[in-house]
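Continuing the batch. This is chain 6 of the set; chains 1 through 5 are on the previous pages. Same settings as before, nothing changed between runs. Recording input and output for traceability.
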Amino acid sequence: MQARLTITTPNGETFEKLIGNTAIIGRGSSVHVRLSGDPQVSRYHALLRCHNGVQYQLVDLGSSNG
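Output for chain 6:
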């Protein structure tokens, strides 16, 4: 079962993205969930893990932006 991430943009648009069991979030070109346009988001900002389809873990990747 793939995890589904729902994202709401600053202007209110909502969309879903299938992320599998893990996804890297950031503004880099090779991440799974790209948050471009915000200089406070690092290229590799966080890792999202899905466990058993019901538990989620968000891990800070130690970026300088926190």
